[in-house]
């Protein structure tokens, strides 16, 4: 006979909990674990203030990674100085873009210039470059994306 599977408890309806009960539930769940939590793109210091006590500090190596575009928010969330990411340069931007659009193939020479013009408008932001590349790579699944008219239309 097979081993019995351990039945998992179904979580309560979390959407019905008020913020304090929800934070307590998270804290209780994390208190016995080593965890890594990412809070992406915080815009207000108040957002961190509202949730920080949900994360227990048991000195067990757990980490919280917070990203923000705002220096004030980054400085507010930790006593340590924030780490500032640099924008990508032209060569790095083109390399990222090319990998996403051409997936290891060579960029056709007739569209390289317009491609470089398009990524310049991304200002070195990797997310913008990846989104643009995704649009082009999926536009007619590569064949259309490798045509000058498609690229010219998107660069306007």
Give an overview of the whole structure.
This protein is mainly alpha-helical and 156 residues long. The chain has two domains: 14-76, no CATH class; 90-154, no CATH class. Helices cover 45% and strands 5% of the residues. The protein is built from seven helices and two strands; from the N terminus they run H-E-H-E-H-H-H-H-H. It has helices at residues 19-30, 45-51, 71-76, 90-102, 109-120, 126-138, 148-154; strands at residues 36-39, 63-66. A two-stranded parallel sheet has the order 1-2. Strand 1 (36-39), helix 2 (45-51) and strand 2 (63-66) form a beta-alpha-beta unit. Helix 4 (90-102) runs parallel beside helix 6. The N and C termini lie far apart (66 Å). The mean pLDDT is 83.
* Oligomer classification: single chain
Distance between the termini: 66 Å
Number of helices: 7
Tell me the Rg in angstroms.
Answer: 23 Å
Percent helix among the residues?
40-55%
Shape: elongated
Mean pLDDT: 83
How many β-strand stretches? 2
**Major sheet size, sense and barrel closure:** 2 strands, parallel
State the strand order across the main sheet: 1-2
- Overall number of domains: 2
The helix/strand class is: mainly alpha
Outline the low-pLDDT stretches. Answer: none
| Secondary-structure element pattern, one letter each | HEHEHHHHH
Strand content: 5-15%
